[in-house]
């Protein structure tokens, strides 16, 4: 089973909403844990390992601002605060307490996913990129990052520089489903748009090169989630 894109804790008192969010994020590729109480949510955030906290402001037991203030005494876990109000003073208060981003209801899943990807990218990649090897090898497939070539056996794959970077990212995170918004930001260096088909076109060409090289269907489309190098 592919590794999740990340582990997200949702602290939201509306159980129906948190359940829907959890299902949607799991479908996108995240592992999700939900909690409907502020005090219990703080305990979970401190006791268990999560990559990001999606935190509602109005909670029983302990409100979101108080939870965040206490959390920041012990943890730098990324936090996106969610509120029914778009008031500037609430956004400023949340950011001053240490929130990494702020989202007002109602919001779309696409916007939420973009914000999650952006926050995780800010806190994850610097050390990860520094630790990246110069070459990757999976079976007969070899990639050289410095010279930007890929070959399978004795066959050099005909890839553009952008296609090489896409393949490198997918192979480097082999077994993980990489969402379209994530690939747009990390590789294409621009925001995702549902009307932009350029990523699909590049993936299709990379897949064809891999199949022609005898590697089979190792680059897979996970419908509604993204792409996976198996």
Automatic annotation (TrEMBL):
InterPro entries: CheY-like_superfamily, OmpR/PhoB-type_DNA-bd, Sig_transdc_resp-reg_receiver, WalR-like, WH-like_DNA-bd_sf. It is found in: Cytoplasm. GO terms for cellular component: cytosol; protein-DNA complex. Residues 7-120 form the Response regulatory domain. Keywords: Cytoplasm, DNA-binding, Phosphoprotein, Transcription, Transcription regulation, Two-component regulatory system. GO terms for molecular function: phosphorelay response regulator activity; transcription cis-regulatory region binding. Residues 133-230 bind DNA. It comes from the Bacteria. Pfam families: Response_reg, Trans_reg_C. GO terms for biological process: regulation of DNA-templated transcription. The modification 4-aspartylphosphate is found at residue 56. Residues 133-230 form the OmpR/PhoB-type domain. The keyword DNA-binding applies. This is DNA-binding response regulator.
